[in-house]
Every structure is written in C-alpha cells, then in structure tokens.
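quick one, 267 residues, struct below
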Amino acid sequence: MNLQNAYFSFLGGDGRTPWVRACLEKAGCQVVEISNPKLTHMILPLPAFAANGSITGGEPLAELVARLHPGITLLGGKLEPWRDRLESTGAVVLDYFQDELLTAANAAVTAEGAVLLAMEQLPVTLAGTPVLVTGWGRIGQLLSRKLQALGAQVTVSARRSRDLGMIRAMGFRAAVTGQWEDLSPYRVIFNTVPAPVLSQRDLESTRPDCLLLELASAPGGIEAGGSRSLIQASGLPGKTAPETAGRLIGETILRLAKCQERSSHAG
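---
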C-alpha cells in the first residue's frame, strides 16, 4: 500500500514537527505548501489546539475551518472540543492521539522525560529519595517502574481497589488519591491525573523544598500558587525527546493514512 496520490502539509507545530515531516518524506510521501491545489492531508501538532482555540504554534481555528472541505483529511492530536466543528466542513477528521500504539509509546517517552526533569532539578539523587506518583494510568505505571529501578522510594496513589492491589503487588507503597494523610516525607510529587487532586491546603503539608511536577494535560491535578516549586511539565515528549516523539507521530500518521486509503479502495 502506498500514498503516491497523497499530498501532506503542516499547520502549526513544535520541536517534533520536523521529525514528523522527515518520517513522511522517508516513506516517500509528498510534503507540499498549504496552498498547493493537490493537497489531500493537513497535519496538526499534539495537542492540536491551544486553550483559545488557535492551532498550537499556528493560525486561529476560524482560518483552519475555512481551509477544510470534502476531499481533505485532517490529522491532529487531541482534537476535542473542536472536532464537531471540524467535521461539519465535510473533511475527514482523524485524531491520531486516539491510536493506542501511539498513546502507549508516548507515555513511555513522557515517563523518561519526567525522570530527566526531576534529576535536573533535584540537588540529590533519586536513589533513596521518597517520591509520590499520583495516578495509575499509562504514565503513572511506567514512571513508577523507572523510578523504582533508580532506587527511589516510590509511593503511588490510585482510587480503585484493584489498582491499589496491583500497586502493592508490584512492590510500591500505595495511597488513596485525594485522601492524603501526610505529604511531608516526599521530596518529589509527580502528578499524572488530569483533574484536581492536590489543593493548596493539601500542599501545605509538603516540605518547603518539595518539587512538584505537573505531567497531566489541562486543567492538571496540582493547584497552582503558594510557595512550593511547581513545574508545568505537560507535553514533555516534545521538549525532552522531540526526535523520538516526532517519529512516533509520523509512523502513526502513515498507518492511519494507509488504513484510510485501503478503506477507500475497498469501498
């Protein structure tokens, strides 16, 4: 299966974008200017949109909508809450971050980046350091294992009993998310939950030099403000490993585009 009749163009982007483009070109795809009349596929970054609705690193939503029409395929990451408006143009809209292979691989890159960021910020080694990871999703699981391998004293929080059981079975200390008894032992808190779980009142019990790393997408789980050191670290793959993250996105786009082409031929 090839994409000889597909013409790709990029709108917006970040440090991963050149590597996405390189992946497509290596596969023989044709990357053109957005104004090219042969254009078939538009590619948005991850996340596709900023909070105000404009493309991340690019133009306002209204200008994107004006470019879309039947015959165009739009691929982007995290397209909500604008997906319905995009689909109303008649374009095919694909959210590549709903691809399970990509989300799992991206979680691994995020976990590695979080470890790197913590090591850069801390004046001590992670080995022997008490840390808390909130959430037992993909990132929480991978991050906890990496921290454990480095010798950190890892506590992981979750809400469901089966998750708490698995956390203990894997050799971690377990805590119930939101039911914080004492946060003072932790030198680092990594949040992976994209919903409020740590309020300013909760954070009052942390040690003054506790490092807070917000890994979750907006609105995040750590309440901003106060005297504690909070680092907004969402979107780590594009910052710490743009080549790896970009290639993962590029491979996913190729896979989705080939599936779309196969479906169109079958129809």
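The chain has two domains: 7-98+241-266, 108-234.
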